[in-house]
Amino acid sequence: MTRKYKVPDHWYPQDLQARARVDEYLAWQHMALRRNCLRALWHKVMLPVFLGEPVSPEMLAATLAELDVTLQVLEDKFLQDKAFLAGPHVSLADLVAITELMHPVGAGCQVFEGRPKLAVWRQRVEAAVGEVLFQEAHEVILKAKHSQPADPTIKQKMMSRVLAMIQ
């Protein structure tokens, strides 16, 4: 798509080493950050509030502990002391990462609290995208904690798929 639409090079760089850093992050995030961010959202809000299914305190604690470990890997391995995940410029890796991180934020998790490097990175990503667009893109997920309970017929249709997804 970057070739078809001729987007600025920083989003998905032509330089092979820079592109490899973006690709490395994207490969990792799918089974790590994405998984743990979604599980935090579902265990903290969507299951108990939206679907009315209890989540044990032990399960929630384990989920949030896994998320914390994943956030540490994100900081230590990918962000390090760089401005953005793949280098000095915002890239697709940053957009994907911030999108995933906003899921637990929407559930009320303070993922940036106590993580100054991650908090400053978030500010950089928001500035690169533009504050208005950033807020618009995350408007729905940031309201997740205020979800109304699902209709019982919707709940029945969703439960098996949801449980399979968050395993």
Automatic annotation (TrEMBL):
SUPFAM superfamilies found in the cross-reference section: GST C-terminal domain-like (SSF47616)
Domain GST C-terminal: start-end pairs: 15-153
Keyword terms of this UniProt record: Cytoplasm, Transferase
Main subcellular location of this protein, as a coarse class: cytoplasm
Superkingdom as given in the UniProt entry: Eukaryota
Gene Ontology terms: cellular component: cytoplasm
One example of a Gene Ontology biological process annotation: glutathione metabolic process
EC annotation from Swiss-Prot or TrEMBL: 2.5.1.18
Localization of this protein: Cytoplasm
Catalytic activity: RX + glutathione = an S-substituted glutathione + a halide anion + H(+)
GO MF term set: glutathione transferase activity
The protein's assembly and partners: Homodimer.
PANTHER family for the chain: GLUTATHIONE S-TRANSFERASE THETA-1, PTHR43917
Family per record: Belongs to the GST superfamily. Theta family.
UniProt-recorded name of the protein: glutathione transferase
Lineage: Eukaryota, Metazoa, Chordata, Craniata, Vertebrata
Gene: LOC102504304
